[in-house]
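Our collaborator T.R. sent over the components below with a one-line note: 'Predict the complex.' Nothing else. No constraints on interfaces, no templates requested, no preferences about which chain binds where. So this is a plain run: every listed entity goes in together, and whatever single assembly comes back becomes the starting point for the next discussion.
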Amino acid sequence: MSRLAQGGLIDRAKPLQFTFDGKRYSGFAGDTLASALIANDVRLVARSFKYHRPRGIVTAGSEEPNALVELRDGARREPNSRATTAELYDGLTAESQNRWPSLAFDAMAVNQLFAPFFGAAFYYKTFMWPKAAWEKLYEPMIRRAAGLGRASELPDPDHYDKVQAHCDLLVIGAGPAGLAAALTAGRAGARVILVDEDFRLGGRLNTENVEIDGSAGLDFVAATEAELRALPNLRVLTRTTAFGVYDDTYAALERVADHLAEPAPYQPRQRLWRINARRAVLAAGALDRPIVFGGNDRPGVMLAAAMETYVSRFAAAPASRLAVFANNDAAWGSAFAAHDAGVTVSALIDTRADVSPVLAAKAKARGLRVVLGGRICDAHGKALTAIDIVAGGRTERLAVDGLAMSGGFSPNLQLTCHHNGKPVWNDDIAAFVPGTPPPGMSVAGAANGSYDLGDCLREGAARAVGALADLGIAATALTVATATLNGTAVSAFWHVAEARTKAFVDFQNDVCASDIVLAEKEGFRSVEHLKRYTTLGMATDQGKLSNMPGLAIMAAITGKSIPETGTTVFRPPYTPVAIGALAGHHRGKDFRPTRLTPLHGWAREQGAVFIEAGPWLRAQYFPRGAEKTWDQAVNREVRAVREGVGLIDVSTFGKIDLRGRDVGAFLDRVYINTFSTLAVGKTRYGLMLREDGFVMDDGTTARLAPDRWVMTTTTANAAKVFQHLEFCAQVLWPELDVQLTSVSEQWAQVAIAGPRARDVLARVIDDPATIDNGAFPYMSAMETRVMGGVRARVFRLSFAGDLGFEIAVPARQGEALARALMQAGAEFDITPYGLETLGVMRIEKGHVTTNELNGQTTALDLGFGKMAKKGDFIGKVMAGRPGLVDPDRPRLAGFKPVDPNDRLRAGAHFIAVGAAATTENDLGWMTSTTWSPTFGHALGLGFVKGGTARIGERLRAVDPLRGGDVLVEVCNPVFFDPEGVRLRG
Amino acid sequence: MLITCPYCGARDAHEFTYLGDAELIDRPDPAGPEAEAAFHAHVYLRDNPAGPHRELWYHGSGCRQWLTVTRDTRTHAIASVVAAARPEVAR
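Returned assembly:
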């Protein structure tokens, strides 16, 4: 139980310091935290989840159920980190978790005394009464007692990257089978990606003392790695776990910097790989599995394969006096490796009555005591001190401080099940083997149930040849003449019936053999019920060690075979994946891109306050001088437009160029009104429906030439409308000559509005005569030049409801245009305005926006019923459904408070005066409200039964959520300039 | 998931937007008999097959073409991808 004097794949020239629970230790480069703890004789590393029993290290890999620690500190503290995969670095800090006040003395260990209450499903049964106590007392208590470590509550300081890769062959696992597959495919010139979760290639070859074609296994690994890394068509990813198989895509997590104290500047901590592999070979190996006997969870009891790994790879002896308890040949190899490394092996207990003479001779040559047909019924000591061996009807107590157990091997076939493939039972090796893997995946080596080294190498090479043959790539299989024979000759054995103390099946969730017996008694026999009732296999290790023994015990109780009992479904991820890795860079402000308009820099210069509008950052208002609140700025901006002139950036509108002979006919079919009659040089407002008859979007479309048109859409629907029009043009009416191009990004657009708008534009446009009221009346459009030759499109339009123009210039000229307009308008005190002011003025003018175009309103609802033409258009038939043309449907109207001091609130419902405020009496609701500086009181838009037929009527606007109840008068929704005099002036 | 666009080749599904059943290609005749019933079925009624399904995808981050994809809803295996715009193939 210390560092062995020699051997191991560690760099003794590079000592590393680390702390565990505040105590300083040292290890070497090449160690994991687990191997370094073993080398420092730290055996107690954790407390168990439910009973707070002392626990030690059980495995040497990602399947570890016990040795979970809080790794690092501060913002980088990560709970439930497996000590067995955490690479040691200088200055590493780790804390044990789930213990109080200390690991050595855990007060919660008294839970063991109450074990009768903590059986399967105890929380469903025990904490039932009184009901109120659950939330306040029981749940917090259970959570505190059963927590698995503490997450850092600070923001994660690290970055996570995502990358997409394509390859012909993905090889998962770099043990003998994976190396043979990768080498075969790499030599054939195929594009290959080889991934392994370990930081070294080689898999079991890093541990087992074997020969391949007369050389040591490690030499084979070194030579193969050198060749693989030299191949330009092959990528090797170590520290990378392929954790899920999706549609055509494998997901893998690369731990780029987890072996460092912290990532280098700009280096991601982890990288999520999405790998589109045409074929894959799964060579993920197999896991040794525990045997269920009394006290099998005591620190000092570990899997035989793990024990061999610590001794051979890390030169760390987990025990000074070791016993081995197994049902297969492989564990004998582990015992020999420990003995040969200088560890005393006190007994080798095998459940089998006979073993091969070769094996027996090897044990005899080493002078090992062998107990055949024996088993261990109980293990003793807080950390292991003794075991009870049952053999030949006698029980013997043997003093040992380490026990290596092996119940045989379970292939790592999880990834073969991610497309619903069902594992198949193989009695010869007492294990499930892959059934139907996902399309394009084949399985090689131990993952396929082939444990012998030669078989692994040959199978890996053959799978690669087969996969590449599918793709039409000829490959020659790597040839191996001789390899050490090392099959397992397993004989199924799961559970020692003679156990007198608690025998654990699931270490991480503290599920005992007795819990499975109880579950069966209470009727939870289906393997899926068993899992949920006892929590067997539900911990972070997802039952990698516990599923098989649990299944076997249930099978034995019910008298069924294991395949009849079934197996639970394996789902991604294979090992836990940090949410940060799945999010990648998409977090905080980077969750989605922020879109800036071409005039953003200009608006910033003007002191704009910006607001997020969907993905856009838009100017909300432009505070001036002593203005303290947003409404002071907005009131000034509105008055400036109504009395002089204002300017607003409208570049965010969707803009679509339409070209072709049949654009007019096309627009007739997508808008409810007619466009084919629109003259060149004119623009028209249009309303678009969905096929279900509800309004999708509105906007204006101008005809610039007989076959050239430009459409604007609302900002929010720009992408949706474009996609819809593409569908109509390509799919519904391919016979029409229409070509669509989105030009939203290409044109900057500025609206100027107010009585002085023409005076300002006249100083910027190259030919001022062209914008005379006679030459260029309301709803005109033209292509022209501004600012001395800059291409521009000018439209006589106004959303604000005043004399107005919209001027579009190529995006890069946008800021120059804004500056030119500001300069030209200086003598009229031209005022930049933002979204808030636009919102006020559009309500004054009764223009609808998203509040009214909410996907639930029809053209009739909005007062556009008369716009609809006779002929067909998208949505026409469905808009005529009786329910949608019901005169009682709420329709658009305007509202003002009877008392001008009252404020209005969107969301308020209309109720007749004198009627009770009930759902039955509901007449409609307010959609938009504002305080109007033009009128000096509040204004509202909304939908009310009868609509404008109620003009002059008084109603209550009831807002029970916010305690509002205001008397309002129904008005024409167009409050400002209802005759359009200013618009046309 | 990969979709093999007939114009752009095999591309990740992230580049595409799903619309729904390829029945949407066949817009009913608004002047036909029972037009309202036909449109009702067109807008609202969909089969939900466990198996091959013809559906519309838009290659918005690529060539902007509407595609008819035949996909097995049980396995996501894609049997064919053709341009929805070519009536002689898509319909």
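Summary for T.R.: The interface with chain B takes residues 164, 246-249, 274, 276, 419, 439, 691-692, 719, 723, 726-727, 730-732, 734, 872, 876-878, 880-881 of chain A (CB under 8 Å).
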